[in-house]
Amino acid sequence: MASSSEVVVVGRRRVGEVNRATWEGVRYIRFLRIPSRADHWLSAPARRLYGLRDVREPWFASSLYQLAYAVSAARAFRAEACDLVHIHNFSQFVPIVRRLNPQAKIVLHMHCDWLTQLDREMIDGRLNHADAIIGCSEFVTANIRARFPHYADRCMTVYNGVDSGQFHPNGKRPRPSHGGRIIFVGRISPEKGVHVLLEAFERVAALRPDASLEIIGPEAVAPMEYIVNLSNDPIVRGLRRFYGGSGYLDYLRRRVRGPLVGRVSFAGELPHSAVVERLRHADLCVVPSVGGESFGIPAVEAMATGLAVVASRVGGLTEIVEDGVTGQLTEPENPSALAQSLLRLIDDSTLAQKMGCAGRQRAKQLFSWRAISETLRTLYLKIS
Predict the structure, then answer these.
(1) Into how many domains does the chain fold?
(2) CATH number where 290 lies
């Protein structure tokens, strides 16, 4: 975008970062920690108060949440005379930015289902101030259109992107004739379904002694109020059982016992460059989410790297993985079906390689940053 427009990114200043910087033509403005301290001072009593209210009006969706940060950002947009402001996920920022930037066009970009899960009247008033509403998948966008038909003409889908230049096969080795290296990449959180994956892999391991599973990602459990409390899906609401106690990752580690020891590994959080190398040395990628999956970046990254993907038939994953073409889709929280799909691709290396090639082409065509930026540029021009 910076090749044809002046792009400014406003955010918080982290340790070791400077207030202002320019990189690849994009200017970055970072705040000092004062707004963060103000928000932190306000959040403790507010969380307790909002915990007594309707789950459709949680603290993180209130107009007071991160208020100091939102006002500081809105002032920065005004000082920079921004023509267009692009906001992610937090709809309460839209009216604040609008008040201080009445002439700017405002885009609200949703990477989750909050607009259709939170209090309808509250959200409706905020959307009135947005010039465009983006969903990261048609799954998200269609739900928004259905709940707010009077804003349907403002809605469109812009997929999340992947760097297809970084994530690529790079002469990926042929798959072995036996066994199989299975990889999971993502946050270690209940809605990601890693517990289902472990149960499925127990069945795979019993039949394929050479199979292995590598789990990559940090333990980053989504707060219950973000996903579980808001969902009407009984499978997602059932994830409450994983909250409390010693933690989800500890639960998963305790599940790795007996014949699974030495065949299941937890790599933790890795830099992108290391993730690429792990994907290149894997045979299959699995995305076993049980719900709350609006898109599924790991599936796209695996496809770009030339891997067949076995994924749950939930949310935006059904738009990423073409069942039978770039991978296989299975019903969520069904370890038996997941194991069968994994075994099929472990045993049929020709099919897995064919799916991997098709996935690479699909990732380049639909999810490359070039394709995403062109779609976004079209939207910006339309509302300008």
Answers:
(1) 2
(2) 3.40.50.2000
